[in-house]
UniProtKB/TrEMBL annotation:
PROSITE patterns: ATPASE_GAMMA. Keywords: ATP synthesis, Cell membrane, CF(1), Hydrogen ion transport, Ion transport, Membrane, Transport. Produces ATP from ADP in the presence of a proton gradient across the membrane. The gamma chain is believed to be important in regulating ATPase activity and the flow of protons through the CF(0) complex. This is ATP synthase gamma chain. It comes from the Bacteria.
């Protein structure tokens, strides 16, 4: 049985932990409001651009001269970008990204493709190191829970374009947590290269109109010049939207995890306090019995 001194020390320690988790919860809630606003504001633009590019792909004749961001490479090297956090204490936020990547890796293997991993965030690097050490291209640092500048997505997009042009990769997908609310973050796998045809686009539906009735696109100054400008921009916009979604999801997951930890600490304090009071009462009762027994013996 623990002594009163040990119980007091444990109660003091748990109270200190509760103060820390409560403070972390408030910090995460403050950051969540900012990141949530930005993530929600980016969604319409990213989705509209994604749908526009998908319709453009469906209406553009496939050819070997098409931009590499549209058709992808000729090989089977599939780059998967993992968006995770640099910090822990975020519940299952990073673990579910790890499960999604392992599931995607199985699909890539079944398709006869070669997996290549580019984890963004220290936790993603740790997960990749344990599960796929030989497939890691490089471990990139995350934003550390701070603001997400567009330069991060722009530099990452430029690197992807460079790797595609050099033939180092042929396909690209990004795996991230889409923010739903503070309690829910949904893992999403988004293909970036080659561009996917939008299933909702008129050109992609089974009941699509005939060739004569399909919409015609006019390019100015010309198709190649326009696509060279739009495709890299679309890639960077999709990466930036994913980074914002991941940042908002991280703060939501951390806020929920710290809220649970604070409540559990409160319950632990109640149990320890009850144990302390019972032990103290038992000690007092025992001392009284000893005093009374000694008095009767005299």
């Amino acid at each position: 049985m623990a002594s009163l001194k040990e119980l007091r020390a444990r109660i003091t320690g748990v109270k200190s932990q509760r103060k820390i988790t409560s403070a972390m919860k408030m910090v995460a809630a403050s950051k969540l409001r900012r990141f949530q606003t930005r993530a929600e504001a980016s969604r319409p633009y990213a989705e509209a651009m994604r749908h526009m590019m998908a319709e453009l792909v469906a209406a553009t004749p496939a050819s070997e001269t098409a931009p590499i961001l549209m058709r992808g490479g000729q090989g089977k090297k599939h780059l998967v970008i993992m968006l995770t956090s640099d910090l822990g204490l975020a519940g299952g936020f990073n673990a579910q990204i790890g499960r999604a990547v392992r599931s995607l890796a199985g699909q890539i293997s079944q398709n006869g493709e070669t997996l290549m991993l580019l984890p963004l965030g220290r936790k993603g690097g740790d997960i990749a190191q344990r599960a796929f050490p030989a497939e890691i291209v490089e471990k990139l640092p995350g934003t550390g829970g701070k603001e997400v500048p567009f330069d991060v997505a722009s530099q990452l997009g430029d690197r992807i374009i460079s790797m595609l042009e050099k033939g180092e990769i042929d396909k690209v997908s990004v795996v991230y947590n889409r923010f739903v609310n503070a309690m829910t973050q949904t893992p999403v796998t988004l293909p970036l290269v080659p561009l996917a045809v939008d299933e909702e686009a008129p050109e992609a539906r089974k009941d699509a109109p005939s060739e004569a009735d399909k919409p015609l696109y006019s390019f100015e100054p010309d198709e190649e010049s326009l696509l060279e400008q739009i495709l890299p921009r679309n890639l960077k916009v999709q990466l930036y939207a994913a980074l914002l979604e991941s940042a908002a999801g991280e703060q939501g997951a951390r806020m929920a995890a710290m809220d649970n930890a604070t409540r559990n600490a409160g319950k632990a304090i109640d149990r320890l306090s009850q144990h302390y009071n019972r032990t103290r009462q038992a000690n007092i009762t025992r001392e009284l019995i000893e005093i009374i027994s000694g008095a009767e013996a005299v």
